[in-house]
What does this fold into?
Amino acid sequence: MKPKIGITSAYRWETGYCMIRDFYVKAIEKAGGVPFIIPPIISVEEIETFLDFFDGILLSGGLDVQPGLYGDRPGFTTKVGPFRDEFEIELVKKAVEKRKPLFAICRGIQVLNVALGGTLIQEIQKVSSLKHTWHSGGEVEVPWWMPTHDVEIDQNSLLYKIFQSKILKVNSFHHQAIKNLGKGLIATAFASDGIIEAVEHIKHPFCVGVQWHPEGMFDVHKEQLKLFEAFVNASKG
Ligand code: MN
It folds into this structure.
């Protein structure tokens, strides 16, 4: 049996759409899993049902996390997604508790961190010493697969085992990042300006977060599929 992977989706409160970009779905399928989309507006009481059903959970990208959820006020946060935040935070807490394989992408790494008590930098460009790495396209339009900076991977990490490389080229579509780490998380990759680009949970068989978008790269930069393959394999139990 192929592992069943639940992918969290965006909730557009203006229109009522629950939606997800196709390349998350394609990446899971290509890596050998069966993708399912989780609607983010369901009661948190159903989280147990989801966790019993799925073999692994993928947290997808999206809007900024509400600053109140990590004890901050809105500073440079642009747009938030109520319902989805609360749902995903509970989902992460329970998935970590149950040691369910968890893979978190972009907004996902930030949700993972906040769910475990961590905090976020609301705008990387406002942190004066951190201006020289290209984390976000801003006004510049770039294709999803285009790397704009390197990350350096800690050799004592699951991430290093996956890539077998200290340096990795990544795309970057984020204006926020991890500030203080949540409980149990360690940083496993950094950009040259010190921004945390990947984390993992020390007491979990597979709980990995990345700040870049491997699902937007794997078609052109094949090595990025390794992340999805490692996640799907871990979800086989
Ligand atoms: Mn980046």
